[in-house]
Model the fold of this input.
Amino acid sequence: MRFYGTMATPLVRANTRSAVLFKTTQRIVTTRLSSTIVPKPKKEFGPSYNAKVVEEGWYEWWNTQGLFRASSADFQNSPKEKKPFTMITPPPNVTGSLHIGHALTFSVQDAIVRWKRMNGYDVQWIPGTDHAGIGTQSVVEKMIMKERGLSRHDLGRDAFVKEIWKWKEKYGNHILHQMRRMGASLDWKNEFFTMDNDRYEAVQNAFMQLFQDGLIYRDTRLVNWCCALETVISDIEVDYKNVNGRTLLNLPGRSTPVEFGVLHNFSYKVVNPDHGGIDELTVSTTRIETMLGDCAVAIHPQDERYKTLHGKSVYHPILKKEIPIVCDENLVDMEFGTGVVKITPAHDPNDYACARRHNLPIESIFDKLGKLNHNCGLPELVGHDRFEVREIVIEKLNQLGCYKGKDNNHVMRVAVCSRSGDVIEPLLQPQWYIKCSELAAISKKQVENGQMKIVPDLFVQDWYRWLDNIQDWCISRQLWWGHEIPAYQIKLSGDKTRDQGLDLWVVGSDKINAEKRAVELLQKRGYPKDTLFELTKARYPIQVMETGYDILFFWVARMAMLANHFAGNKVPFETIYLHAMVRDAQGRKMSKSLGNVIDPLHVIEGVSLQDMKENLLHTNLPEKEIGTSTRNLEKEYPNGIPPCGTDSLRFALVQYTQQSRQINLDISNVIQTSYFCNKLWNLFKFGLGRLEQQPNLDFDSRQILSSSQDLSLVNRYILSRMADTITKCQNGFESSRLFEATDALRRFVVEDVCDTYVEFSKSALSKSDLDEKEKNATLRILHACMDISLRLAHPFMPFVTEELWQHMRSSLPVLDTNTNSPSLMVETYPDTASFAKLHDEQVEDHFKVILSIIHASRSLRQGNQINVGKELPFTILCDDPQLLDQNGPLKLYINEIQNFVKASHITVLDANTNSLTLDQWTSKAIDDKLKILVPTREVLKAQLEIAAAKGTDLGTVIKNKNALLNKKLNKVKLDLEKLNIKMNKPGYGQAVPVAVKEKNNQRLIMLRLEQEMLQKDINSLELIKNENA
Done:
């Protein structure tokens, strides 16, 4: 919650005791969004995945159907209690459009709320935008200057504020469009803008309550002042430019650049120096113009060079006055320069602290525009710009013989306003502050005792460190755009002596209320403590506050402190969930000046390089930075960005969240994710074609829970993988590790369903003699795989999953009898407890063994150019007692293995009891304990049949086979040599991670086995060649 002060307007209060109340004014405008009922999209099932076609129409239909405010519990046959789940969007600033970092926020948050909605929660995800007072005012003023050559002062306040509202309507609405395009299922009826009537009233009430509770006060302190914007700015709005030696910087509003990186030296004469002692002190400064505000010079109390100067003074050469020499061990470094420091307390934070320690006078020599005021002591310079007087001061010092030269190679950091680009001027200004120490202690304790949780927990110490070192919070700004401060200053015109020097303020929601409080203040000189409003509502606290970790302190912590105060120290958030910062593929911070800021719509819809470059021309970037940005765009996106779709972007961004501090976003990863969407689409293309052949079959994913017995191994395997995936997805959400859910989901869909189960079911369903019961079981499980995949994927990829779910319902009308839900969004999410009994690790282990045998058999066939349809006699040679056990996979599923590998017959041999000579066998090693064998004679026989069909003789077949085997053997030998060299390097055992060493050891074993098998195949081939010579 932020407050912004604006320029004061006097309001005269009529009373017997004459006084004036000074108040700020601000016009408020609000907008409302309207919605129109739209029909449910109806589309043909396309031959391939097309994101643009798939995503069209669904968002508008969801919204007008009220599904963003609905829950899966609303559509269950038996009533279910709905627990509330509330989350707000960190409101984006209306200073432009959303970037890819915002897209990450909405991807994570929408996944969470969709998951909660499918789990039966009463979800309210509240959208909003931030008026961003200083940022918006700065951007709009730059735009008007660029387009019309006018400043806000040229326009006047009312006209300028109207221009800002136009900007807000344009870019605020564009931001809302981007939110919708991202698929964010927000509660639009509760949309807010931080300058709407409700928020305006809340800000006013909050300020008045905090003021009456003694937490808000007014004080004159040194602040970060932006002369271009004429306002104080916060520390996080200050950027720093590193300067290595003399550098000319272009600053706003100046026709000539300003010099930085130069250290000027000048001297102060000592007043009444000791005979033969030091008669002058030389100081160094990069801002020699500020010497007009010097009130002292400082030395270190332990510096032996200056012991005789303790208690003495120096003579200011230009102002013609004495200023003291003070001893300050905190400010002065004896080893740096001359060990003497000039003190300008009104324009340097370190000097300010020194002046407070020594009770030195603190007078600002610059006004709010950065021009010299009367305190500079030289009437002829009053009204001159701070940087323009630099040469004048140097010239005067030269004339007085006090200028000692300069160093053009000084390294320094220049503080610059991030909004205007102007150099920050430390300035003494009265501002409003909130006392933070007690508020911070409460928020820290809530995390310590577990009332409020921060994930990932690596940010907990950051939370403690910041709250332990918190400073009072400056909440006022001097702006034309923003919330006005509801405070009135009392100016007495009667008895002026009674309250001489007393700064009297009252707060009030309007002038009448403020006048009443002014009377009370003047009578009692105290502040009444009444509760004016209650902040706690039905939706308090928020269950999850999700945002980037960079605003943990400046936004989340401050909200926590204030919300605690207004809600009786009740925690505002149960969980604070933080994600990493998005950077480009090179790890650079995304910046308009670098040309690497990515608009999410460009990734979703695609954009050409030419359009990206033209967009730069419509920004407020200087021409020089536009050139730099253009070159970076040409390097990063030579072919533009292809259309990837919302689902692909969301899924890829969530997968990136395994990186807790920095995400180096590579667009190619988003493109790869679109292939996953295509994989899902093809699954349904295959599956619906099979399921439609049995449209009246009872397809219900819940039925498989009670009918999982007497199923084939492959069916039990895929159900076990399904149960495990459901558990991992639920756990991923519950532990705020969403990337674990996306990883499990992708593996299940791609590896388990598409690459394995589809292939097995395709083979099974194509058999004319397949048992009817087994066929129906396979179809039901295929449907369950499709259905569960959609439910698990929906929180991450809402559009493609909704499209496929609706297609499946229209293709299989029987599904309407199993659900009342109009949309996948309000279907139930698979729960771990119900599916847990399907998980069987032994079944998975057994099937993986069989799968490895199948893959090995296919590899053997492929390596010898024998098609899968040709039956071969296989022998399995095993050295693993567990696999050979009566309850092991080789004995239990020998018939399935024979069928899967297309074996004319199959034999299992124990390697420990069978001294098999492998010279006459063609083999494929699965690992060091398991091999599959086919007699080499049978392999050659099969190859001869193929050769005969093509007219090739036996000698050519043997020659070609021998060449191929030797080529493979040579490659294996070379790989072995390279691996041995790597593993025998000095320090290998200490420097290489354990996981890498284990991987290398396994690879070494497999390469040695492959070398052995290839050599035996070559030997067998030589025997056959000799027999047929």
User: Anything to note?
Assistant: Residues 1-35, 495-501, 525-538 have pLDDT under 50 and may be disordered. DSSP finds 31 helices and 32 strands in the chain. The two ends are 93 Å apart (CA to CA).
